[in-house]
From TrEMBL, chain A:
InterPro entries: Cro/C1-type_HTH, Lambda_DNA-bd_dom_sf. This is Transcriptional regulator, XRE family. CDD domains: HTH_XRE. Residues 17-65 form the HTH cro/C1-type domain. It comes from Yoonia tamlensis. Signal peptide: none annotated. Pfam families: HTH_26. GO terms for molecular function: DNA binding. SUPFAM superfamilies: lambda repressor-like DNA-binding domains.
UniProtKB/TrEMBL annotation, chain B:
Keywords: Membrane, Signal, Transmembrane, Transmembrane helix. The lineage of its organism: Bacteria, Pseudomonadati, Pseudomonadota, Alphaproteobacteria, Rhodobacterales. It comes from Yoonia tamlensis. The chain crosses the membrane at residues 47-69, 98-119, 131-153. Residues 1-31 form the signal peptide. This is DUF2975 domain-containing protein.
Length: 72, 167
């Protein structure tokens, strides 16, 4: 089986939408620290509820935020 | 969490109670040693016998003090909101071990105590008594139950830890 890892592209989407992490954190209802952890990929997972709120706020699809890439 | 406030409030009360029990345990040993019953028991015994008897009486309160000490640590964790943590689970498990230990000590000290008291008697009049009281059974059952709860808490703590890693 091919090794695949999930990369979080939240920073790209934030840049495209010209939105600050603080504003997204406030809108989604999670801490800025968690947004920062999410951006850096230092989390084990993301709840569907959080993902749905982020997608709604950034007007995008989960695939725009998460990407599966082959692990080196 | 809906019960956090209650948990913190009662943990504070129980923390104070645990410290009070911790302070009272040595006093109860002193009171037991100086009681009329003990004086009657010590009559006719040698110094070494009395010393060993006092040591035997000391074991159970010491183990119970260990349980009270672990309780103070547990309630401190709970008071500060650390409920599903590894540290709290370890405290719970140790409280159970102490209670189970107290039951075992009670069971072992009764024959030793009876042997020591009757040691000065003539051959044939010496005796060893073995007894199981409802207290021992209660301590053993409570200890076993709390150890199992401690293991379950450890599982819960690891699940909570994993859950905290989710955003």
């Amino acid at each position: 089986m091919k090794n695949v890892e999930i990369i979080v592209r939240l920073d790209v989407m934030l840049a495209l939408r010209k939105m600050k992490s603080r504003d997204l954190a406030h809108a989604v209802g999670i801490t800025e620290q968690n947004i920062s952890l999410l951006k850096s990929g230092k989390v084990k997972g993301i709840r569907f509820e959080t993902l749905a709120k982020i997608c709604a706020e950034l007007d995008c699809q989960p695939g725009d935020i998460l990407e599966a890439v082959a692990a080196e | 969490m809906p019960h956090t406030k209650n948990l913190q409030k009662w943990s504070h009360v129980l923390l104070v109670a645990s410290y009070a029990c911790l302070a009272c345990a040595p006093l109860s040993v002193l009171a037991a040693v100086q009681s009329d019953e003990a004086t009657q028991l010590f009559a006719g015994l040698g110094r070494a016998q009395i010393a060993v008897l006092c040591l035997l009486w000391l074991f159970k309160p010491l183990v119970l003090m260990g349980a009270f000490w672990q309780m103070t640590r547990l309630f401190s964790h709970f008071k500060s909101g650390e409920v599903l943590t590894e540290a709290a689970a370890i405290c719970i498990k140790r409280i159970g071990q102490c209670l189970l230990g107290a039951a075992v000590i009670s069971f072992v000290t009764v024959p030793l105590q009876s042997l020591l008291i009757s040691l000065n008697k003539a051959a044939g009049a010496r005796s060893v008594s073995v007894a199981i009281s409802s207290d021992m059974i209660l301590f053993a059952m409570a200890g076993g139950l709390i150890i199992v709860i401690g293991w379950a808490m450890r599982e819960a703590a690891s699940v909570a830890q994993e859950n905290r890693a989710f955003v």
